[in-house]
Amino acid sequence: MRYALLVLAPPQASAVHRAAIALCEAAIAAGHALPRVFFSDAGTQVALDSTVPPGDEPSAREGWQALARNHGVELIACIGSAVRHGVLDADEAARFERPAATLAEGFTLGGLGLLVEATAAADRALTFGGGAP
Amino acid sequence: MKATLLLMNRAPYAGTLARAGLDAALAYAAFDQSVSVLFAGPGVLQLAPAQEPAAIGRKSLRRLIDSMPLYDLEAVYADSEALDRHGLAEDDLPAFVTVLDPAAQRELQDRHEHLLAF
Amino acid sequence: MALPPLDKDGFLRDSGDWDRDVAAALAVEEGIALGDAHWEVLELLRRYYATFDSSPAMRALVKYCRQELGPDKGTSLYLLKLFPGSPAKVSARLAGLPRPANCL
Lengths: 133, 118, 104
Hints:
The complex is a heterotrimer.
Chain A: E1 3-7, H1 14-29, E2 36-39, H2 60-71, E3 74-78, H3 79-84, H4 90-95, E4 107-110, H5 113-121, E5 124-128
Parallel strand pairs in A: 1-2, 1-5, 2-3, 3-4
Chain B: E1 3-8, H1 17-30, E2 34-39, H2 61-66, E3 76-79, H3 80-85, E4 97-100, H4 102-110, E5 114-117
Parallel strand pairs in B: 1-2, 1-5, 2-3, 3-4
Chain C: H1 20-30, H2 36-52, H3 58-69, H4 76-82, H5 87-94
GO biological process, one term (chain C): tRNA wobble position uridine thiolation
Protein name (chain C): Sulfurtransferase
GO cellular component, one term (chain C): cytoplasm
């Protein structure tokens, strides 16, 4: 089975991110493919390199980075949402003349086409942090 | 092709999630995907006519929704109970929007492989 | 003429700065001499923005041209000849619209 994930919740909604990461790990451990997670709206803020969660709370960003490192999962932040939420790679920082790039390692900015492509190839698509059906 | 249903559940201007959902819907349509949109819960307020969000420095989501047919996106639905709850009538909606009761919505969901909830 | 402030991609920083002279000067930068056919599309784009509060992606632009200007002009080839390269982006720039969503 092949999965695609869309994450919409801000990193401060830590339970949502923990649940999403746990699902990814469980799916991969069970032998399923999960090549890409797409972050949109406030979800893109998890790709901010400049947030500082309290030292005694796990960091959602680091959880995702570990998933990318250990399992080769591609982490894409929607470029349109990202720039609105202060998440800039070097190119966007230059384009909008902002003082610094803020995109954390392991994340890439990309267009919505990458979400479309991921769900089109997936057997299961899951949203985390959107309105419940 | 996987049929994808996008569920629009959020009021239009509380945050930016409603806009993110509409942008995703237009992207699925622009990439020639089989895509439908269902407005439900407070999300039906995105369909309300005569929105004047310029007063709060935002752009009108209703006007963006009005452009959906130009993306060949006309499989657009609204939950009848949510419309009632929010005081909207069928006449208030864009002409291409179809009103569905809960049973018809379950059938709609069954016709789609993927559900993305905004 | 001196151009009003532009962003790094050449779009107007303030859409209120747009007028026909600005459009013509932006077109020169693109190597385009604006004729009646160009103006027809630019005016259509401004109408699109006023109606839909957004800049069209290519697909919507083509369909809107077909609806408003007829089948001969509602093709991507027609728009590509008028605004070479990336017609939706170039024409939005000349019409003083915000850049089409870069997510698309």
